[in-house]
Structures are given as structure tokens and as C-alpha cells.
């Protein structure tokens, strides 16, 4: 699959990641599957809303801030440097990362009008559930997508998505790592770059 297609699907699924959160409760396979389906329904409502792109980006960031475990995702993307980041500089990075994700994934929405993702099953894997689905995009071969769902934070949330072997968290970590390397490990400078990126 071309890299642009992978990035596009990851963008759409990243929207699913931030759209889904429910009150704390013990998960099972049915609930994990329902959570994925609910998030997909909401994602497609945004895609087909007819809003201007800039408004969609703002809406996406607001949803991300409210429903995703922003801290876990941001720390994972930053990698080992997150352990050395001081409070204020990490907070600035986290806020910039949140906006970066909103813009980056928001820009992929238009590619998925008329597409469909169907949930096909779920299974427990260690401390989380893996929910499988099939993405059917116009003019492209079906793709298998795996969603990782957990309620360890007190709410049921997606914390990773894998599509055809492409790990969303790993992809973000590689991009953020490269940006940090260009800034010679300077996290405040990285945060400034993230405010313009996406």
C-alpha cells in the first residue's frame, strides 16, 4: 500500500481514537467492539458534516483533548525524552502535540467520504482488547485494521491502531523523534515546531 494511503487511513482511524470514550466499566469483547463502532459512526458524521476544513481541525482537537488519553499518546510519541522533560516544558509540548494531531489527522478527513469500515471481531490480549475491522475504500483493496482498547485509565479508550502492520504510535514516535533530533533534543523548540506542523 502506498505510504500516503497508509497515512490517510491512520488519519481517519486516529480520529476514531480520539472520538471514543465511555464511563469507567469493565470491558468485554462486545463492549470493545461497540466502542469501535460508535467511534466510527461519529467519525463519519464529522467527515460528512460539510464543515470548512479549519473548523473540522478545531473540532478534532477539542475532541482529542476531551476524550483521548492525550498524556499517554504524547509521552509515547516523545519516547525516552519524556522522562527527562521538566513540568512546564512537557506541558507546552503536550499542548502543541495536541494541536498538531488535530491538524494532521483533520486534513485526511476528505479522503474518506463514501468509504466504510466494518467491525469484524474482538479478542482479549493481555491487559487490553484487540478489535479487528475491515476498511473498504473506494477504488482500493480492503485493508485489515486492528484497534487496541483499554479501560486502565478509568475510561474505555483507544490507545493504538495497527493497519497492515503499520503501528500508529510507532509512526508518531518516529516522526516526533526525527523532529526532536533536528532540534538537538530541545523540547521547547520541538513544541514550537509542532505548533506549525501537521
UniProtKB/TrEMBL annotation:
Enumerate the UniProt keywords alphabetically.
Answer: Signal
Q: Does the keyword Transport apply?
A: no
Q: Which Pfam families match?
A: MlaC (PF05494)
Gene3D superfamilies noted in UniProt = Tgt2/MlaC
Signal peptide boundaries? 1-26
UniProt name for this protein: ABC transporter substrate-binding protein
What is the organism of origin for this protein? Paracoccus broussonetiae
Amino acid at each position: 500500500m502506498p505510504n500516503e494511503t497508509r497515512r490517510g487511513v491512520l488519519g481517519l482511524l486516529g480520529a476514531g481514537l480520539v472520538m471514543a470514550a465511555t464511563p469507567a466499566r469493565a470491558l468485554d469483547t462486545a463492549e470493545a467492539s461497540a466502542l469501535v463502532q460508535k467511534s466510527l459512526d461519529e467519525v463519519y458524521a464529522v467527515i460528512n458534516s460539510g464543515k470548512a476544513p479549519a473548523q473540522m481541525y478545531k473540532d478534532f482537537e477539542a475532541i482529542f483533548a476531551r476524550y483521548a488519553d492525550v498524556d499517554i499518546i504524547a509521552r509515547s510519541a516523545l519516547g525516552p525524552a519524556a522522562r527527562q522533560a521538566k513540568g512546564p516544558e512537557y506541558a507546552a509540548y503536550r499542548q502543541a502535540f495536541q494541536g498538531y494531531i488535530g491538524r494532521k489527522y483533520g486534513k485526511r478527513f476528505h479522503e474518506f467520504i463514501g468509504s466504510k469500515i466494518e467491525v469484524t471481531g474482538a479478542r482479549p490480549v493481555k491487559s487490553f482488547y484487540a478489535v479487528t475491522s475491515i476498511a473498504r475504500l473506494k477504488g482500493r483493496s480492503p485493508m485489515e485494521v486492528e484497534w487496541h482498547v483499554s479501560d486502565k485509565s478509568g475510561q474505555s479508550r483507544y490507545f493504538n491502531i495497527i493497519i497492515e502492520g503499520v503501528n500508529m504510535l510507532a509512526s508518531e514516535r518516529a516522526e516526533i523523534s526525527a523532529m526532536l533530533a533536528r532540534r538537538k533534543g530541545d523540547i521547547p523548540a520541538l513544541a514550537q515546531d509542532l505548533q506549525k506542523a501537521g
